Amino acid sequence: MNVLLGASAIALVLLSADTAEREGGRARAAAPLDAITTILDAFLTHPVVGLDEVHADEASHAFRLSLIRDPRFPILVNDILVEFGNSRYQDLLDRFIRGEPVADEDLKKVWQNTTQAHTIWDRPIYEDFYRAVRAINANLPPERRLRVLLGDPPFDWDAVRTPDDLRNRSFSRSKHPADIVVREVIAKQRRALVIYGALHLWKQSLQGPNLIEHVEKDGGIKAFVVLTHPHASLGVLHTSPESWPVPSIALTRGSTLENQVDAILYLGPVSGKRESHLSAALCSDAAYREMRTRRMALAGNPRAGEQLTNECAAVR
Amino acid sequence: MTRAYATAGYLLALTLLTTAAAAQTRPDFSGIWKPVEGPASTSSPLPPPKPGGPPPPPRTLSTTIAQSATELRVDRRVERDGGEAVITFIYKLDGTESLNQMGPIVFRTKAAWDGTALVLSSVISTDERTIGESRDIYRLENGELIVETTRQTPAGTSTSRDVNRKG
């Protein structure tokens, strides 16, 4: 019996010590926060907030609309920098966003003529975003109106005749938009939401300084970066978000991700992801299809026509 | 019944004591380590990067390791275009999976002891799509930290043996 008591006592002590150590050493699981309030609060301490643009994703678009339609947004934010627009058309877009008449034929050049040959920006969610900002501005006093800044470098496809023409054109999709933020936002003591793909926003990018790092270095500020799960994995924060409200957000502070991203946005399970498709009208527009096929081929896609046909086949 | 409890208690205590004894023989990798350049460290030629595969690992400038009974924290200071970065990975040492992320690349790792060597087996993914596997073996030899790495990606397999000294 003494042996039993002795062994049990030793086991109990070892188990207690082990449990206490594991609980003490275990990283606390992240808790879900209100996504819109958290992002808006970030503007109180950061002049620039980067928000991951999950390309062609309907949920990502819906969240952006909810954010900019929140009545607090135009009080806290002045500008929105977007990836899906050619800065060559900034004046045209300024007129449109202010509520002035702009012909559809002219407006579409903003997203159709970027440096990118692909069809992503032709999905209706991107045009919808510009129209949403214009509608918000219509109900705001002039001093509160939002400005949309076009981040893609100025580019003229009419000057591109061969693949070499394209290869020889030099432009920076990181430095150019960063310069815009420094010049139009930071220097003017304004605040901006930067809507760009995740690779442009990760801090400590091993591929070299990206957009957000140029903004921080050249602008002398700290930006707040929000990436979407699973671009940044909530698993790293020791949590699994299946039961979380949609949308939710978690801060990375105290985790191994805190040097790379400030918060992770949860927009629902990956299995429920819905993609925005080209519109039926665009797919039946022969001039559009010829233009897009030619540009994708110039960019080195030998199956451009087939790819566009497949994309249009997905249109209901 | 009393005898059964006694046996169970004895076995439990014996198991825990044995585990504790084994843990005492395990090396402690804690410290600040700097890579030794030259013939001591070797690597196979890295295959050229292919679309969809993970990028080659960045060059390490120093590694700071903090080891406890339950986890291994590795802070790697690495060289990158335009400066340096500090990448922090934490590995659980209880055999359960650890998740770490470096930019868009996620590492799901299980740690296991093989004698005095610590083996970190990782599945590498991006956006929940597997793009490779890696195996890092940490051991101490004559006061040096040896890290042997094997990476398997769609582009092929690469191996390296890195020698680090405290500094």
Polypeptide structure, described:
The complex is a heterodimer of chains A (316) and B (167). Chain A is an alpha/beta fold. Chain A folds into 2 domains: 241 residues, 3-Layer(aba) Sandwich (Rossmann fold), CATH 3.40.50; 40 residues, no CATH class. Chain A contains 14 helices and 7 strands. The longest helix of chain A has 24 residues. Chain B is mainly β and 167 residues long. Chain B has one domain: Calycin beta-barrel core domain (Lipocalin). In chain B, 14% of the residues lie in helices and 56% in strands. Chain B has 1 helix and 11 strands; from the N terminus they run αβββββββββββ. The mean pLDDT of chain B is 83. At the A-B interface, helix 1 of A face helix 1, strand 4, strand 5 and strand 6 of B.
Write a short abstract of this structure:
The complex is a heterodimer of chains A (316) and B (167). Chain A has 316 residues and is an alpha/beta fold.
What attributes characterize this protein structure?
heterodimer; A: 316 residues; Rossmann fold; seven-stranded mixed beta sheet; B: 167 residues; mainly beta; Lipocalin; eleven-stranded antiparallel beta sheet
N-to-C CA distance of chain B: 58 Å
Q: What is the number of independent domains of chain B?
A: 1
**What is the straight-line distance between the termini of chain A?**
78 Å
Topology pattern of chain B, helix = H, strand = E:
HEEEEEEEEEEE
Question: Topology of this structure?
Answer:
The complex is a heterodimer of chains A (316) and B (167).
Chain A: H1 2-25, H2 35-42, E1 48-52, H3 58-69, H4 73-76, E2 79-86, H5 90-98, H6 104-107, H7 109-112, H8 124-138, E3 147-152, H9 163-168, H10 175-186, E4 192-196, H11 211-219, E5 224-228, E6 248-251, E7 263-266, H12 280-283, H13 286-298, H14 304-313
Parallel strand pairs in A: 1-4, 1-5, 2-3, 2-4, 5-7
Antiparallel strand pairs in A: 6-7
Helix pairs in contact in A: 3-8, 10-11
Chain B: H1 2-25, E1 31-35, E2 42-43, E3 60-67, E4 71-80, E5 83-92, E6 98-102, E7 105-114, E8 117-126, E9 129-141, E10 144-153, E11 156-166
Antiparallel strand pairs in B: 1-3, 1-11, 2-11, 3-4, 4-5, 6-7, 7-8, 8-9, 9-10, 10-11
